[in-house]
């Protein structure tokens, strides 16, 4: 059982060798008057001989079934039936139904709003539009009755309509249902699969053999045995929502009525189906052979399989005919792509890909088997326009050979790509796995994802206010002046009169546009004296250094301005500690205290608590290790080499120079403030340590705190690069909300993107940085009210909303995810796929996630019927052994299993049993054991037309 896809769009030419057969099929159907819709897009691939044979056989089924049904329809209708008119009418109704679904969803969404927030005008408009649409659908439905030429309630007309629908399902653009294939195989006169050297169709052959057996069994004409048809047809398909099998579970049918039947059930519990056969026969009946036409995928819940009733009594032969594609399904799927939605021109765009791979493609360390190599391709604005990128999983990419990864042993793999766009504007980027399907891969369609990004050609406008030329300020000032992504202005309070304040100086244009300041807040050649004028300066980032609050250049109201600029104008504020004033001199200013992510409560004698002669280091917290500010290398191992890491409770410093001074504070504030690094020494980690760097969302903006002015020491051993990179990261981080708020910080995805009804959907939420407190701040009340298990006390949880758009309804439910032990900031939860439709997932109460939800699809039963995947092992398990001496086919493994292309050969098996001796009579009964004379000889061919993998649970809960 499984939800994998084996696409079968038979009207696509996937290989040059099948182009003539595809043309023949299309021409035949067009000749019948059938319009063929455009098949789904599919990459051109090289098919194996087996795949070609199966695809050719299915097209043969379609041609024969379509021709036969058209002829029968003409006979019932009394004249040519204009099937194109019906197709057009059905297309119109489907279009109107889809429009009605959207209106119903919008109306449901409006009605779902809290009382007092419903827009009554919008509600009335939607209700009116929906009623008009439903009325139009009803009027269009009458067109069907006109085309059929009778009363829709007339049973004969209903049969005619069922025949038409079966015809159109057979010629569907994505291929026929397995129901259509199975029905055509057992139709009298259908020579789709005949034994080698014979022209007799499957059913005729079976009837001939039944007559032979019956004739050989007759002994006494005076005896009047109970008469029973030698060949009988049954369908098995447990009906929707039934927990127990009923008399309706297995039904005897007239084969002539198959053209008017459609798959109605929901379960294909094979063992129960075989057990049901016993209800029709007594121990005195000689049930010889059961032939089962199915895909073999049993939907019996695993917990019930051990207690399933016995299938059939010993001695009854079971022949299985596999309806589907025998090629094993192998899956390679690009599940999700994460990246920022907006970046500055010249910045790197980092893509994170989640890949799901079949076991056959993955590495097997136990056997030493390597994983298959997968090429990761990036295309810009067109799926056929590949562009080079800079890094793959942290390693430089030089040419096409560097664009491949080897799959590991895990089912889910993560791949990172770093790319620098060169053209501004809005772009769509396509991420592809390989140029085509891998060998035996089910489909290439799920190997491609798209991601929309806007490249902005503008600079980040930065203001740096500093008191004096301390070493940190000198180095930072030089970094800011040279950064080509910035429009930088600085103001040093202690600069001599007449000294020109610093600005960006990397080219003549920026020198012309960015003027030196004459005051901390200065514009249009004058000092800014009003808050509104300050806002018009349009700074994205302000860096506040070690400023003396008593300086004549600083005014008390500036803190009010900055606080409102951050909270309402989405400003980014960096607070750079200093040994004189920042933050120790601001503890009594409420607006200043509010902006710091650390508590400005200083212990007594804190000035003497820091030994400036002892070298200390920056130990990243788990949050800081994942945070963009501290990402000095896109390769995590290299990042650890620079910062150092904790191993078995011991901290080992990295390549970056340590620090001598830091600011003692009252510790990190409550969530959503988060500590990114702390003070550490080499050796055992004892306690948390003093906060060094921290971040906190404040209103609509962001603040970042650096509690030491010793980052300039990093330049001593490794040069300017990492010092510059750290401050570039910090500036871009706090500017993210000001720029557009489109940087992705939460990644929501599922373990697959397409599911069958009844499967489990695994939902993941990954926090890109330690932003848990910020993300769940609107969930805190609900999280506290959740029942806690024994191991939930220390486990963080997140609530996601799953919104379903299904059958015209818009519904929503919550799912609780728990943090996994093996990956910090990764949360996992499970929800059942109990109803077909489209489903959107986002983090509850977190607007960023709500705007860009993750979407997955649950396939409706009719779509699953086109899934021609087989469970060959399940078919072999239920088939009985081939008799001694019969040469097995390559795939049989000694079992009475036949592919649908060999169904005629399956008919030969009805005479044979494992204990066969010479003579057909001895096979059926033994005179010596029948002291009452000859019993009725009975051969029953039981044909189970199983609809395939359907629901294993009642559909009573909405996802």
Q: Please estimate the helix content.
A: 25-40%
What is the molecular shape?
elongated
Major sheet details: 8 strands, mixed
Poorly predicted runs: 1-6, 219-228, 238-247, 912-940, 946-959
What is the CA-CA span between the terminal residues?
Answer: 21 Å
Topology readout:
Layout: H1 19-31, H2 49-77, H3 83-111, H4 120-148, H5 155-170, H6 178-185, H7 202-217, E1 233-236, E2 250-253, H8 270-276, E3 289-294, H9 302-305, E4 317-322, E5 332-338, E6 342-344, E7 349-357, E8 373-380, E9 391-392, E10 395-396, E11 404-406, E12 412-419, E13 425-433, E14 448-456, E15 460-466, H10 471-482, E16 486-492, H11 508-513, E17 522-523, E18 526-527, H12 531-536, E19 541-544, H13 558-569, E20 572-576, H14 590-595, E21 617-620, H15 622-626, H16 636-643, E22 644-647, E23 650-653, E24 674-680, E25 683-684, E26 691-698, E27 701-706, H17 715-718, H18 720-739, E28 746-750, E29 754-756, E30 760-767, H19 772-775, H20 780-785, E31 797-806, E32 809-819, E33 826-832, E34 837-843, H21 847-851, E35 854-859, H22 861-864, H23 872-878, E36 897-899, H24 903-906, H25 920-924
Parallel strand pairs: 3-4, 4-36, 6-14, 15-16, 15-19, 19-20, 20-27, 29-35
Antiparallel strand pairs: 1-2, 5-7, 7-12, 8-11, 8-13, 9-10, 9-12, 13-14, 17-18, 21-24, 22-23, 23-25, 24-26, 26-27, 28-30, 30-33, 31-32, 31-34, 32-33, 34-35
Helix pairs in contact: 1-2, 2-5, 2-6, 3-4
